[in-house]
Amino acid sequence: MPAPTESSQPSRQLSSYAVVFAGMVVQNLLLFGLNILIASQFGAQPDMDAFRTAFTPPLMLAAMLTLSVGPVMVTLIARNETTSAPGTASFLFFLMTAIATFLAGTGTFFADEILQLLHPWFDPYRQETSARLFLILVWMLPLNTMIGLSQSILNASMNFWVPAFSGIVGPIVTIVFAAILGPHWGIDGIAWATVYGGIASILCQLGSLSRHLKWPDASHLQLAWQQLALAWPLLLGMIVFKIDPIVDQFLGSSLDQGQISQWDYAYRMMLPFLMLSSGTLSTVSFPKVAQVAVAGGAPLQAQARLTFRVLISLCLPAFVVMLFFAEPLIQEVLQRRQFTSEDTQAVSQLLRIASVMFLGLALSEVCSKILYALRDTLTPNLILGAGMIAGFLLKGVLVGEYGMKGIASVASGIFLMIGIVQLAVVCRRIHLRIDGSILFHLLRCLIASAVAAIVGWAALSLPIPFPTIIGLVLGGIMYFTTLCLLDSETRAFVTQLRSHKSRD
Question: Which of 413, 300, 440 minimizes the C-alpha distance to 356?
């Protein structure tokens, strides 16, 4: 069988980008709609503080399990170095699901104690409400674990359609039930709607997942333990990384009501940009990097250089939006009913700070995946752990004087530092130079972002409904149009994608 040509590989990879990117665009539009619905009903009120603090521990634990084992599973399947890979991946899937289910069941017996330990300065109402919501939301722990590991298996098998589809169905179900249950059951209805959305998402994946699962036997156990040995540095890194919002909420419980929710709204406004940029990129490029990492050398350097070029193209305009359009965006999207103008000002300030955090997180995600593909799970997580521990200490020092802005500023600075250090390690490890082509591409993206920003500001001055959203759409179109005019490689990618689709 002839090897794929060099020109066909970027075309297929860009086609995969398109699938994942389109799925994430729709998913994040739905999540925007969900945030609008929740903000209009609860704003930054005590019920919202209770919901966020009850939801964080299950999300944190699920992320620890999926983000520590998931990359190992992707590398195992993508490298295809052994016929035992499907059975081993299946064993890891079943094992992590069982652990998550056990932890969720155990958590139901200690809900009051857990929430009181994590938020000792909450008033009695928020303490009682968060414990009640935790009994519902704790079941998102096994659901999110199954969803994340299923996506890892399917993505490693180059099946991007099903995870993209399930990522759309889940939010749709959540929005429908939130609209139905929220007015009658209050914040409890939002919690149940979240669980129903998780169930719908995993059900969408089960059909395709079942074709990749193989009932494990004794022969798979030894390889599974070897993979878990690679996963433990990831787990330690994820523990430090995912405990960060717990630390924020612990410190934030001593602040005025609503500040925890305001920081959470800012983070959730930043999260779609992160998912659409580095999330899309790492989902598609990680299996490819894992494949070429076996050969190393020039193929790996070429793939890494392509990955960083695309990362710059996707992240820079998102950074400009968060930095310069935070207030009109939040005012247009969230400010209604219970979400006040004071909330808009506070959240927009936090989102501007979080724009720096966005750059660090995006860079760290891509660099970590490259190192994972090289079977190095220890180095990126040592860097992550050291930075996060320093951040915890700084947050404790600054929260008293600067409040939630101090917490957000420390988080942004620490994540940017982590990303830069991990980039230096990647460049040294694979002998990659940040040469003139990367710098010139950065300049082209800056010019395209400036053109898009001008279009966006012009849309804000027009007497039209939803000027910020329309400005974002027009600015995005202008950005990629300008980039195609300035960058020959971007034009070539678009041409290859169009020809690939026409052949299909």
Answer: 413
> DSSP letters along 208-272, please?
HHHTT-----HHHHHHHHHHHHHHHHHHHHHHHHHTHHHHHHHHHTTS-TTHHHHHHHHHHHHHH
Please tell me the total number of residues recorded for the chain in this structure: 504
| Measured distance CA(74)–CA(285) in Å, rounded | 11
Radius of gyration of the chain (CA): 22
The helix/strand count (H/E) of the chain reads as 19, 0
- What is the reported pLDDT for 118? 86
Q: Are 140 and 107 a contacting pair, CB within 8 Å?
A: no
Burial of 462 (0-12, 13-18, 19+ CB in 10 A): exposed
| Helix %, strand %, coil % of the chain (to 5) | 85, 0, 15
CA distance 134 to 344: 28
Dig out the tokens for 454 from the structure: 């001008």
Taking alpha carbons only, the member of 491, 357, 333 closest to residue 417 is 357
Q: Report the C-alpha gap between 237 and 64 in whole angstroms.
A: 9
* Whole-number Å distance between alpha carbons of 15 and 113: 49
Evaluate whether 209 touches 27 at the Cβ level (below 8 Å).
Answer: no
Spatial distance between the Cα atoms of 498 and 504, rounded to a whole number of angstroms: 10
Kindly state the tokens that stand for 441: 């591409």
What CA–CA distance (Å, rounded) separates 258 from 338?
12
Report CA-CA distances (Å) from 227 to 14, 81, 146, 147, 233: 30, 13, 18, 20, 11
Residues of the chain with pLDDT under 70: 1-20, 78-84, 216-223, 230, 283-284, 294-295, 493-504
Alpha carbon distance, N-terminus to C-terminus of the chain: 20
With tokens 């390889």, the residue in question is: 223
Count other Cβ atoms within 10 Å, centred on residue 80: 12
Give every CB contact of residue 226 below 8 A, 6+ residues apart in sequence: none
What does the pLDDT look like over 163-194, one tens digit per residue?
Answer: 888 989 999 999 999 999 998 899 999 999 99
> Is residue 424 within 8 Å of 430, Cβ to Cβ?
no
Residue 379: Cβ within 10 Å count? 18
* CA angle (425, 427, 433) in 5-degree steps: 155
Burial string for 336-368 (b: 16+ CB within 10 Å, else e) reads: eeebeeebbebbbbbbbbbbbbbbbbbbbbbbb
Name the DSSP letter for residue 158.
Answer: T
